[in-house]
Amino acid sequence: MSSVAQAKAPSRPPTVKRGSQKDRERQTAIWLIIPTIVILALVIGYPIVTAIIESFQKDPGLDPSTGMFNQGGFAGFANYSHFLAQQCGTVTCPPGTNGAAFWTSVGNTFLFTVATVVLETVLGVWMAIIMNRSFRGRAWVRASVLVPWAIPTAVTAKLMLFMFATYGIVNVVLQQQILWLSDPAAARIAIIVSDVWKTTPFMALLILAGLQIIPDEIYEAARVDGASTTQQFFRITLPLIKPALMVAVLFRTLDALRMYDLPAILTGGGPGISTTTLSMLVVSQIRQGFNAAAALSTLTFIIIFLVAFVFVRFLGANVVATQSATKKGEA
Amino acid sequence: MSTATEAVVTQGRRRRAAKTADYANVRYKRHVGASLRTGVQAIIIVIWCLLPFYWMIVTSFRPVDHTFDTNLLPIPFTWDNYATAFSTELGNHLLRAIGNSLIVGLTTVIVSLIFGVTAAYALARLEFRGKSMLAGIILGASMFPAVALLSPLFQLFTNIGWTGTYQVLIIPSISFALPLTVYTLTSFLREMPWDLEEAARIDGCTRLRAFWQVILPLAAPAVFTTAILAFIASWNEYLIASVLSTDATQTVTVAIAGFTGSQPHQEPYTAVMAAGTIVTLPLVVLVLILQRKIVAGLTAGGVKG
């Protein structure tokens, strides 16, 4: 048996691989992957296709324009125009309906996404740079950074509800009496701060992984050439972590676009609908009509897909390539 | 066999450790001047990350009429909130919710691992056409917005009378846990010493046996870490559970979000903080113990948190 370990075979079998062996490898691979693909098709593909089909069906119920009960049937784009054009039947949706809330919640969702992702990126880069330096207790810093990440968002939301309460610690520290949950601007700030607290560590760890593959020699050389710390950051660090950073930003953006737990528990979408996100609108719509909800969730899916597309196509977030590059760097 | 394996692994580890130490040494000398500034910033990071968590624990030990105290220690001190958190008198069922979350989480993890390990093996080890496309599909699936699945699944589960069962919670959980498992495991498995598997196969092992007896034991920590990540994702899930669960199948996140106190319109903050501590502390301890591996899994997998 000891010969097994001594035989230092190359990790890839020799290039004289015969065709039949390659075929067999391909077949094995297909049989190994097919179960996963089938499951994903069932739990993701099936609901999506169903949702798209249903989104073109009428929800049974009273037609607000005629006052007659309708049994459903083909709806054309009515479910979509209900949200996109805020049309309830032939009239404009009155305030308080989900149709009227659509563009506000799109705005809220994008506001939260941009604000949290920008803050998390800046703070994440800072945290990562500190964690990449060597000092005593660095392991403690890296460990403590995992704590906010490990706390369930639902618990975080309750904790923040307590901290942002009228007599809570935030007002005590700020020496203010801000009604965080009754004022639209304050409620939005509370959500953004809570999300930044919870998710920056994750961002920092992704960026740290990018930082760790930059060889020290580059900084050495830059310093010999007289580059200042600022120059080193903008000319070396930032360009070199850009691929890892772009992927981290993409993941965070897609995550933030579907934000639900935090506003649902912290503010309940209020005051009014000033912190209602798209996901919250979908959940509210599910209880009022499946087919309209299907249209709304399809719209949400399309919005998220478009953002991902823009990232990959125009901003150069190459997920697959970055993954393999990171791997090579670490090896 | 196993001692030989260990020898090879330790050798590699030692070489890597020496290299790291070298780097650390150089870095250390360079940063002596700036070390104070680094230290201060490191402390700020630690305080920022831990203070809210600490505040939750401290509050969980305060008597109700001291809810908004500002001293950093829970004086006066009480265990009452933990009794309240577990009590079912006010319609809260934390213990049952913990059981539900365990059932959903463990089933999700087991199913995801069974299918995830085979898929990850193929992606990490085998060469075949369409591999990067499949990897892309699986990664895309892990980024998929769960809310888009919710409405059709809700309708389907209602129609077939599954409301109130565990599978309505487990099936959507698999939609994000399985891609996460495949993705994280693939990047872990790529690092395995495949020479050993090759050698075992030259000695006459089948592919399955070589994987089972040579690679899997070495990959056990990676598989365990992946399982933890998938479990945390399932344990922390709220959106799907809040819509699809009933009172009987309520998970911990739903139970805590809907925690009711004795007074209407008044948050029972101290009891909620106790409940939050109960469902969070085991995870935090586990994560801290497995810190290194978890970070490797999070960043190598590069998937959501």
Report the helical percentage of chain A: over 70%
Oligomer class:
heterodimer
Helix/sheet category of chain A: mainly alpha
Number of DSSP-assigned strands of chain A: 4
Within CATH, the superfamily of chain B carries the name MetI-like
Question: What is the CATH T-level topology of the domain at 101-290 and 305-330 in chain A?
Answer: MetI-like fold
**Major sheet summary line of chain A:** 2 strands, antiparallel
**C-alpha geometry of chain B:** globular
- β content of chain A, as a range? under 5%
Query: On the 0-100 scale, what is the average pLDDT of chain A?
Result: 80
Distance between the termini of chain A: 28 Å
Written overview of the protein:
Chain A has a domain at 101-290 and 305-330: MetI-like (MetI-like fold, Orthogonal Bundle). Chain A is built from 14 helices and four strands. Chain A has helices at residues 2-6, 19-54, 78-84, 98-132, 138-150, 153-163, 169-174, 184-212, 216-224, 229-257, 261-266, 278-286, 290-314, 319-330, and strands spanning 61-62, 69-70, 87-88, 91-92. In chain A, the strands form two sheets. In chain A, strands 1-2 form a two-stranded antiparallel sheet. Chain A has a two-stranded antiparallel sheet with strand order 3-4. In chain A, helix 3 (78-84) packs across helix 13 (290-314). Residues 1-10 and 322-331 of chain A have low confidence and may be disordered. Chain B starts with a helix and ends with a helix. Chain B has helices at residues 2-31, 35-60, 80-86, 94-125, 131-142, 147-159, 167-189, 194-202, 207-235, 239-244, 252-257, 269-289, 291-301. In chain B, helix 4 runs antiparallel to helix 9, helix 5 crosses helix 7 (167-189) and helix 7 (167-189) crosses helix 9 (207-235). Classes of the chains: A mainly alpha (331), B mainly alpha (305). The interface between A and B is large, with 115 and 116 residues.
Short description:
With 331 residues, chain A is mainly alpha-helical. Chain A contains 14 helices and 4 strands. Chain A has a two-stranded antiparallel ribbon. Chain A has a two-stranded antiparallel ribbon with strand order 3-4.
